[in-house]
Amino acid sequence: MKIILKNISMKFDDVIAVDKLNVTMEEGSLVSLLGPSGCGKSTTLFMLAGLYQPTSGQLFFGDQLVNNIPPEKREIGMVFQNYALYPHMTVLKNIMFPLKMEKVPKKIAMEKARDMASLVHIDHLLDRKPGQLSGGQQQRVAIARALVKKPKLLLLDEPLSNLDARLRLEMREEIKRIQQATGITTIFVTHDQEEALSISDKILLMKNGRFQQFSGPQDIYDHPKNEFVAQFLGNPPINLLPATLSGDRYTVQLTETGEVIQLPYPVSKEVKLNELLLVGIRPEDLYIEVDENKQGIGGKVLIVERIGRDNLVSFLIGERKVRAIVPLDASITQGQRVKFGLHPNRFHIFRETDGENLLTGKSLITSHQHSEEEVV
Ligand SMILES: Nc1ncnc2c1ncn2[C@@H]1O[C@H](COP(=O)(O)OP(=O)(O)OP(=O)(O)O)[C@@H](O)[C@H]1O
Ligand SMILES: [Mg+2]
């Protein structure tokens, strides 16, 4: 089912939890709702579930306006952070429960519950009670219970947050598998950027109740619309270096060192010559440059840390710490001066005042115009 949020807002007294959200989620897709604590993720999910009424705006499921449709008539399945299983019921009874409420004959309910249990791989646990299950198994029960009525929309609110790291990884792959097997439009709330990047068809990133960007994982990572998006995604985080335009619109000069960086295309005419900019470079986009004539940024190495397959090099540019990911065999030692090259098209220029990405493409579409595309 296609989900359309049209100018959706939610106010609690003086808090605007969600502020004029406009998004269209395609039928059958897995969308992550991502953002820092308090940005409005759960509130958005509760509005979709019908547990909250938006203070303004329209919510469509397909062509149907659902603002006034009660939760039980919305054909949704929901999994909360704490799973909320019934402790005194067996796994089978837990999964059957939504069908029992609808007075589905017991034999059919049992059959459907067994099918769901098999889909989420817990067929062997049907006679146990929730207390006798691991966290991951309980979570599977909660998903089976949410799916048993064959909902048109599955809502998951941080379903992995109380699992350990390894189980979390396993369960997120499971959620992806189950979502693909059922084809149910799924909205997955998380504040973990890596989780969102790994399983989503699209990521909706929010901040303070406001829309930031709605794009596929690779696109949002490679083409962040603003500094917040760029900083929220990626670990170690993107490097940000203060700079200003250097004479023309094709070059910027780093404030700390005076080094000049050539841009792939000019920044917008709106930018004033002395306006403070931030050059954003991801750690994996810096490489060791031996050619003195090529452009790059130089610094003194503070520390070299091994992170699995690579080394993480932290160095100082002026007063600023910058991180680069380099191969293990690159011989770099603490205290050494190293020059790092930048790929010509793999950095961003953000305006310091509002964070807008000024290098979003040759046409220099502003983020405002860009977000209009998502508006229905
Ligand atoms: N029932 C409520 N009454 C008043 N304010 C609320 C209520 N529910 C949420 N808020 C406020 O609305 C904002 C958004 O809350 P929400 O729970 O949607 O955030 P979230 O993104 O899910 O955060 P988290 O990652 O911590 O779960 C917060 O500022 C929160 O304090
Ligand atoms: Mg929440």
From TrEMBL:
GO terms for cellular component: ATP-binding cassette (ABC) transporter complex, substrate-binding subunit-containing. It comes from the Bacteria. Keywords: ATP-binding, Nucleotide-binding, Transport. It holds the Pfam family ABC_tran. The keyword ATP-binding applies. Gene3D superfamilies: 2.40.50.100, Nucleic acid-binding proteins, P-loop containing nucleotide triphosphate hydrolases. SMART domains: AAA. GO terms for molecular function: ABC-type transporter activity; ATP binding; ATP hydrolysis activity. Residues 3-233 form the ABC transporter domain. This is ABC transporter ATP-binding protein. It comes from Virgibacillus salarius. The lineage of its organism: Bacteria, Bacillati, Bacillota, Bacilli, Bacillales.
